Amino acid sequence: MTQGPEDDDTSDTLAERKMRFLFALRSRGVTDTRVLTAMEKVDRGLFVRGTFSDRAYEDMPLPIACGQTISQPSVVGLMTQALAVNPRDTVLEVGTGSGYQAAILSHLARRVYTVDRYRRLTRDAADLFRQLDIPNITTITADGSFGLPDQGPFDRILVTAAAEDPPGPLLEQLKPGGIMVLPVGQSDAVQSLIKVTRSARGFDYEELRPVRFVPLVEGLGSE
Ligand code: SAH
């Protein structure tokens, strides 16, 4: 980005903002090199439209269409890190939103399925994935609390909207050895980020940190 004569010494370039963005991720605990590399490749500025686009490189959630939010980048990083994605994995994301999280996952996994209840969000995200030449994301409009029985089971499942409990169909669609990361709790309270690991014996639950997400809502959205 070139600076005009009206810019003073304190205004910063896009490159500087992106550098600070990555620094903020590291200082908030996103230390996994593969995750940081994936986040460096995905320009958050493309996923935030309109009036808030100039805040895309700040570590804060921002409003997107349909009354939803693009998550805070450090939370995206910490969730992605907790998911421990392997290059051969098939991943389900519930809650496409802007598509930002799915784009990051696409650099870490073999295939990503991402689901949102708003057609408008899945359509815009799919357009963006096409423009960015990302070939391994399948975007689907559906109620993600039922998972995708035809495409599963999955090695990894990431839910980016809060349910009161982990939805049964998602637990069922997790492969043995699989990991699911999701926020649980009431929508108007602080929620907990949970890591569920499926073993031969059953499910192990680990509480990671307090978070705040929009609620997982039943049925399809109106837009
Ligand atoms: N991961 C997104 C942020 C998601 S915000 C990003 O990177 O931008 C949470 C999203 O979950 C919203 O878009 C909301 O529409 C979606 N959502 C809520 N309930 C859902 C459900 N039952 N099925 C699918 N998507 C749902």
Describe the 3D structure:
- The protein is α/β, with parallel strands linked by helices and 223 residues long.
- 26% of the residues lie in helices and 24% in strands.
- It is built from 6 helices and 9 strands, in the order ααββαβαβαββαβββ.
- The protein has a 7-stranded mixed beta sheet with strand order 5-4-3-6-7-8-9.
- The longest helix is centred in the N-terminal third of the chain and has 14 residues, at 14-27.
Major β-sheet profile: 7 strands, mixed
Number of domains: 1
Kindly provide the name of the CATH class.
Alpha Beta
Give me the number of helical elements: 6
| Average of per-residue pLDDT values | 93
- Oligomeric form: single chain
Please tell me what the overall shape is: globular
Q: Tell me how many strands there are.
A: 9
Structural class: alpha/beta
CATH fold call:
Rossmann fold
